Amino acid sequence: MEQALTRNFCIIAHIDHGKSTLADRLIELTGTLGREEIGEQVLDSMELERERGITIKAKAVRLNYEAKDGNTYRLNLIDTPGHVDFSYEVSRTLAACEGAVLVIDATQGIQAQTLANTYLAMEHDLEVIPVINKIDLPGSEPERVLEEIKNVLGYTSPDVLLISAKTGQGVPRLLEEIVRRIPPPAGDAHLPLRALIFDSHYDVYRGVIAYLRVVDGRISRGDNLRLIGQDTEMEVLEVGYFAPEPRPAPELLAGEVGYIATGLKSVEECRVGDTVTSVSHGAAEPLIGYYPPKPMVFAGIYPTQAEDYKELREAIEKLNLNDASLTYEPESSPILGHGFRCGFLGLLHLDIVRERLEREFYLSLVVTVPGVSFIITRTSGQKTTVVNPSDFPVPAEIAKIEEPWVKISVITPSSFIGSLMELITQSEGVYKHTEYLGHTKSTGEFGQRVRLEYELPLRSMLTTFYDQLKSRSRGYASLDYEFIGYREAKLVKLDVLVNDVPVDAFSRIVPPERAHDVGKAMVAKLKEVIPRQLFRVPIQAAVGSRIVAREDISAKRKDVLAKCYGGDITRKRKLLEKQKEGKKKMKSIGRVEVPKEAFLDVLKLG
Description:
Blueprint: E1 6-13, H1 19-29, H2 35-38, H3 47-52, E2 59-66, E3 72-79, H4 87-95, E4 99-105, H5 112-123, E5 127-133, H6 142-152, E6 161-162, H7 171-181, E7 194-203, E8 207-216, E9 218-220, E10 224-227, E11 233-235, E12 238-242, E13 246-248, E14 251-253, E15 257-261, E16 275-278, E17 297-303, H8 309-322, E18 327-333, E19 337-344, H9 347-360, E20 365-367, E21 374-378, E22 383-386, E23 398-413, H10 417-426, E24 430-438, E25 449-457, H11 465-472, E26 478-489, E27 492-498, E28 501-502, E29 508-510, H12 515-529, E30 537-543, E31 546-553, H13 569-589, H14 596-603
Helix pairs in contact: 10-11, 12-14
């Protein structure tokens, strides 16, 4: 098909605004699949995606649409994730398109991630088609959302379409607008090959399957190709497109979206964002700046049964084949045994990886308190990056500590401003900006909607920040964040000792003034969840050699005097002394088992 009749576009939105449902309607209306074949969220094929109602992996599909002008157009649609953790994937997807359909919920209006994705699309010079979805719901307010779009994004009423992705209302007009407003792809099939990889997954028989957009040149089966960013070479085993199942094709030309089977054995060798070119007479310059996604959150993952370590290693290796943004390295702990220190894009990414490991590989896991990476300058001048609190040097060796900071954007009804500002200030946030967006019927009793902009340490967002944000705003607030760099910080390592043995999994990096409060809360929680032993168990929180908080779990006591019926007091004392000696011996050789629930409860502490 000629390039002038091709349209490449993606669907972007805040999480749960109806991207995947809209993709279903587009697939149905173009006749690619019938309604009975679609079911629900045909592009969200992962069980976890359907269950949670979120898109985790970007998906592509080729649609053939017969427009009112009599031409048949080829529409290449890419459905993107909506959560902030996967914004790297969204940015690479936008670079593979000429247009974007921006979906906004008619009941919720503009949310934090709506703005972030719109700005990303504008940075890539995409033609944006704003769409107000869910107009069939009783609580929908299209007029109010329209006013909000006009004030915040600058689009007027004729530019915005009103649709219901669930019923199909307004979707045929959207197809016509896609054909009319989104430009055909540029690029020349006669120039040296350049194709952008926007996603990939691992296939047992064909190796890494790379999803790509061909910008210049062409790709055929048997071609020898090279990745410019990583300098990896490969031979094309298969080339094709998605409809929505993979379909082999003779070749992919400039302007088309499809896939290639590379035969590579690891997704790490074929990173998202890299540029594919030919080995001979290939292009010298990549399409856009290639950089691997950086993990922002780190946590230890351990099996609850030590004998499951081998199964955990194999499970993480298999998961990593399909998720190159997951990093891992072995680590061990005196109490938890052998496990892995893993790096994640964010807390949702951590939660999804944990759940997939437990579900798909039938593992029972313990996840330690999440942390971030710190850049430490030693007194000798040497700089090191530390991701595990147990690797922190002693305070005397530290000249400077730097930690990652993020810029956050919170959209909330105005009546919750006070409590949210208090939460962010308690989390060491630095105020930057306030912007008023407009009124909403669904939050009418709470007043006008406001966007708050703050900068704060990423460390402060890792445990209960998001939950508190939602509870303080009754679920109305939405959050978006972006990494802005490292800044100097005053921090100390807080250790937790159970029966005088340090438990690495409970170690935290905190500001010195919060060490006592955090330590006190942790030892109090551990006293509740660690079962009593036959000897007294001290639980201590310590900064270096200084104990900042302590609780004791009293010993279970057997009534050794039960068999004494009267008699001299010295006989009773003798039995009690004997018991005391036994408990002392037991304490010296006893080992306290920390239950899995203890790690989960400490994880939930602010």
